[in-house]
Specification:
3 domains, alpha/beta, Multidrug-efflux Transporter Regulator, Chain: A, Domain 2, nine-stranded mixed sheet, three-stranded antiparallel sheet
């Protein structure tokens, strides 16, 4: 092995201090992970402990709960620096009507003008933030306590990602709508795969539900992940079909990660947590606001290479996702039957904005095949296989 090869290899080897910094935890917590067998160093002696970066990356997909010590309640561990940062962020957010853009703008001003630092400690940050928010210290501390307690209501299988983390979905991070934090349950690696959003009306026709089932089956057979919003109607059909046919699915929900809506989809959400991935951008301290649902549509579109609207009325929330998708430079696909429906104005409107029309599965695959993210994924055999499968 020459010097260059050795230098390249050493970039993948971290000391204990470097590993703790990379994982955003204390060296004490790192030692606890080693002690309970959750993290195995590649070399450990009295003088040095070394870690392999790939092993650290595997640990980054989990909240660092000391579950072997605290295995009775399996609570989310808040004694981690980046989690404490999130608690403070969402405390500030409470003063801006839970609006991320206003909250981030406020924090950026504090950073630029006063060198605000999340890690300065509560003794400094509480009076500092209370002063700039024009509230009493005690009031701010009370809100902070409520937010902190809500995080303690989470279980230790919840994964918290911050925008800028290596594991934060890159496709979403490149959009203007990327939320600062994501709460997740399930297989986080699905975020690295190519996914298509299949959505539509909560009140859908039987034929559109059947077509959704047929479409999803075709897409998952070609190794695409199906994502939707876990709403009634088309969303439920999309998730259910993906699971039924052994595919992968992501639910982007409009509630905090530990809540279930609609109630009749609780078991479906739990099944997706086990077999797929559930994503929420809303902290456990927040109520479920009506604007959560269109807001999450931006996230759903952001992780997708395309959005397919299977059925929608003039006021359907799926149209909000179409708006976000077009703004984000994503493909939007609409059935030909919707365009030909004289009672609907929205399909022609969106075609005028750049949405693409399909009448059968082959046309869906052809449109996706021209997408830069999927370029030529489907071969001639795939096209011929579905050439006669109508969608209208």
């Amino acid at each position: 092995m020459d010097r260059n090869e050795l230098a390249k290899l050493m970039n993948e080897i971290y000391t204990a201090a470097e590993a703790a910094e990379y994982l955003n935890i204390s060296t004490q917590r790192l030692h606890q992970l080693v002690q309970d067998g959750s993290l195995v160093p590649i070399k450990a002696s009295k003088s040095v402990t070394l870690f392999y970066k790939a092993d650290l990356d595997q640990r980054k997909v989990a909240n660092f709960s000391n579950s072997k010590i605290n295995d009775k309640d399996h609570r989310f561990d808040i004694d981690v620096p980046y989690v404490r940062d999130a608690i403070l962020y969402f405390t500030i957010q409470q003063y801006f009507n839970c609006n991320d853009k206003r909250t981030e703008r406020f924090i950026l001003e504090l950073i630029n003008n006063f060198d605000f630092d999340y890690r300065k400690g509560l003794k400094y940050n509480i009076p500092f933030l209370a002063s700039h928010l024009k509230v009493k210290d005690a009031d701010f501390y009370q809100v902070y306590g409520r937010v902190k307690n809500s995080f303690l209501s989470l279980t230790d299988d919840v994964i918290l990602l911050k925008k800028g983390d290596n594991l934060y979905p890159k496709r979403l991070a490149d959009t203007a709508d990327a939320p600062p934090y994501l709460f997740l349950k399930g297989n986080i690696h699905l975020l690295e795969e190519k996914s298509v959003s299949v959505v539509g009306s909560r009140i859908a026709s039987q034929s559109s539900l059947e077509n959704t089932d047929r479409l999803v089956r075709s897409l998952i057979r070609r190794n695409l992940v199906i994502n939707a919003g876990l709403a009634r109607g088309i969303d439920t059909a999309s998730h259910s079909a993906a699971l039924k046919y052994g595919g992968k699915t992501i639910a982007v929900i409009g509630t905090p990660i530990n809540k279930y809506y609609p109630k009749e989809n609780k078991e479906l959400q739990i099944e997706i947590e086990k077999k797929g991935l559930v994503i929420s951008q809303f902290p456990p301290c927040n109520e479920v606001f009506k604007w959560n649902f269109p807001t999450r549509n931006a996230t759903m579109s952001g992780i997708s290479i395309a959005t397919i609207i299977m059925h929608a009325g003039e006021t359907s929330g799926a149209l909000k996702q179409a708006d976000y998708a077009l703004k984000q430079g994503r493909d939007v696909l609409i059935p030909q039957s919707a365009v030909m429906n004289e009672s609907l104005k929205w399909p022609k409107n969106y075609v005028g904005k750049g949405a693409k029309v399909f009448s059968n599965l082959k046309e869906v695959l052809m449109i996706l095949n021209n997408n830069q993210a999927l370029k030529d994924l489907f071969d001639d055999e795939s096209m011929e296989e579905v050439s006669d499968v109508e969608m209208d």
